Amino acid sequence: MDITLDFGGGAEVLFNNIKKRELKLDDGTKWTLRSFLQYMKDNLLTDRLELFMQGESVRPGILVLVNDTDWELLGELDYEIQPKDTISFISTLHGG
Amino acid sequence: MSQLTKQQIKRYNRQIIVPSIGVKGQVKLLDAKVVIVGAGGLGCPVSSNLTGTGVGTIGIVDYDEVEESNLHRQLLHYESDVLKNSKVDSAINKLQQMNSSIKFIRHNILINSSNAFDILRDYDIVVDCTDNVATRYLLNDACVLLKKPLVSGSALQLEGQLTVYNYQDGPCYRCIFSKPPPPETVQNCGDSGVIGAVTGVIGSLQAMEVVKIIMNHENVMSGKLLLYDAAMCSFRNIKLRSRRKDCEVCGDNPTITKLINYEQFCGMCAMDKNPNLKILSENERMSVSDYQNITNDHLLIDVRAVNEFEMCQIKNSINVPIKQLLAGKLNDELLNEMRQKDVYVVCRRGNDSQLAVKCLSDKYSIKSKDLIGGLYKWNEEIDNNFPLY
């Protein structure tokens, strides 16, 4: 299935500085955000793991969105990814 | 009879005739008390907008004085204020000239757990224009405990974010971020930079949310987060979770019932100034003056980002950005050279250089020394003409 992956707030620097990309996920398996995080870790992450993840989830300070909605409203790690979803990782900003 | 004076009608009529404001709204604005924490990139546009719009009482909190590196974005501060005026005085001096009918309150102090309640108590709305994680948690908890809405803005480089916390039944900062980010992942304007127009956009949006809260407008940015990306000129409005019933501070059974030590909680300083890291032993460090006396063939590695290195550098130094070094992306040619020569490492203030020395030793078994205090010390003790930023 086709999905869009994008980053904001500087989270893109952990992924080769690419802000937005289209991905084709293997149709044979069921994808949850849990398994997708592992996929990202193994295939896309270009910086140190601890800057992106803690345990099996994202580290504090990164918001995960599916189609512009906080993943907490969608079951977090258990959310089942649907074709055409846009999954976003937004690092919070603190400057001013 | 109008509740407004002839002078007030003359001054504010262009916004009074906007249907959602009206005389009623203008009276509410004149009666409102708003405190702005931080008189920097966000605080300047927030305070100018609220002063113009006629918010009756405006408090400004900041501990810092005006520096030259503020001027590109903090547009209430002028060249004549640099190193002469506190940010609070500098800002209020200009704001008074914009609108002398406003009551301004100066809080020339670093806000912390022991003074926060006294500073914030008398205001209706708190605006977070700060630059660091610890103060953001402090303001959140204080606003929850004092039952005040918190209009939060932030900006870095080409991006900005805006939301309102603790408004009606909406979430607070901790509902969304119950744990602070690891310190090494936090970037600030001093190290990563920010564009003035970006803080201008976010600050103006914060001022608008303040006005909407005063007006009891129904679409306040609570439970939503606005993401502004200047590079794409895109605005995205994100739907956030609701208030968490198990939130540590605003939940049904809160565990935080008074202000805590936020620097300890976050493991970070409550200001956008770098703490002095000390992770190396004495024999892994060198003063800039001792370095200046070295005559043998050696390598000086500058671990700042490429943009920073391009602005200024010590002669013959080689640029290897800290990110590249920590990620283990060093080419073999350089590694060979490093194994054959004495290696010294420099950065802007002497923090990243320590991380680099430690990494070179742990990962590659290369012994090196860092220049204590970095380019700041180099400017101070060796070359006063070396540009600081």
TrEMBL record, chain A:
Compartments it resides in:
Cytoplasm
Q: Report which superkingdom the organism of origin falls in.
A: Eukaryota
Q: Where is this cross-link: Glycyl lysine isopeptide (Gly-Lys) (interchain with K-? in acceptor proteins)?
A: G96
Entry-linked InterPro entries: Beta-grasp_dom_sf, Mopterin_synth/thiamin_S_b, Urm1
Which residues does this entry mark as bearing 1-thioglycine?
Answer: G96
Keyword tRNA processing carried by entry: yes
Q: How is it modified after translation?
A: C-terminal thiocarboxylation occurs in 2 steps, it is first acyl-adenylated (-COAMP) via the hesA/moeB/thiF part of the MOCS3/UBA4 homolog, then thiocarboxylated (-COSH) via the rhodanese domain of the MOCS3/UBA4 homolog.
Q: Which GO terms describe its cellular component?
A: cytosol
**Keyword tRNA processing (UniProt):** yes
Identify the keywords attached in UniProt to this record, alphabetized.
Cytoplasm, Isopeptide bond, tRNA processing, Ubl conjugation pathway
Pathway field of the UniProt record reads: tRNA modification; 5-methoxycarbonylmethyl-2-thiouridine-tRNA biosynthesis
User: Single Gene Ontology BP term?
Assistant: protein urmylation
Classification via SUPFAM superfamilies:
MoaD/ThiS
Which function does this protein serve?
Acts as a sulfur carrier required for 2-thiolation of mcm(5)S(2)U at tRNA wobble positions of cytosolic tRNA(Lys), tRNA(Glu) and tRNA(Gln). Serves as sulfur donor in tRNA 2-thiolation reaction by being thiocarboxylated (-COSH) at its C-terminus by the MOCS3/UBA4 homolog. The sulfur is then transferred to tRNA to form 2-thiolation of mcm(5)S(2)U. Also acts as a ubiquitin-like protein (UBL) that is covalently conjugated via an isopeptide bond to lysine residues of target proteins.
How does this protein assemble?
A: Interacts with cer.
**The family this protein is said to belong to:** Belongs to the URM1 family.
State the protein's name: Ubiquitin-related modifier 1 homolog
| Organism, scientific name | Chironomus riparius
Automatic annotation (TrEMBL), chain B:
Instruction: Copy out the cofactor comment.
Output: Binds 1 zinc ion per subunit.
Q: Which GO terms describe its cellular component?
A: cytosol
Question: What HAMAP family has UniProt attached to this entry?
Answer: MOCS3_Uba4 (MF_03049)
UniProt keyword Zinc present: yes
Cofactor(s) recorded in Swiss-Prot or TrEMBL:
Zn(2+)
| Superkingdom of source | Eukaryota
InterPro entries in alphabetical order: MOCS3/Uba4 (IPR028885), Rhodanese-like_dom (IPR001763), Rhodanese-like_dom_sf (IPR036873), ThiF/MoeB/HesA (IPR045886), ThiF_NAD_FAD-bd (IPR000594), Ubiquitin-activating_enz (IPR035985)
| Top-level taxonomy | Eukaryota, Metazoa, Ecdysozoa, Arthropoda, Hexapoda
Q: Which residues bind ATP?
A: G41, D62, S69, N70, L71, H72, R73, K87, D131, N132
This protein is called what?
A: Adenylyltransferase and sulfurtransferase MOCS3 homolog
Cite the entry's keywords alphabetically.
ATP-binding, Cytoplasm, Metal-binding, Molybdenum cofactor biosynthesis, Multifunctional enzyme, Nucleotide-binding, Transferase, tRNA processing, Zinc
The record's listing under Pfam families reads: Rhodanese, ThiF
What species is this protein from? Answer: Chironomus riparius
Positions annotated to bind Zn(2+): C172, C175, C247, C250
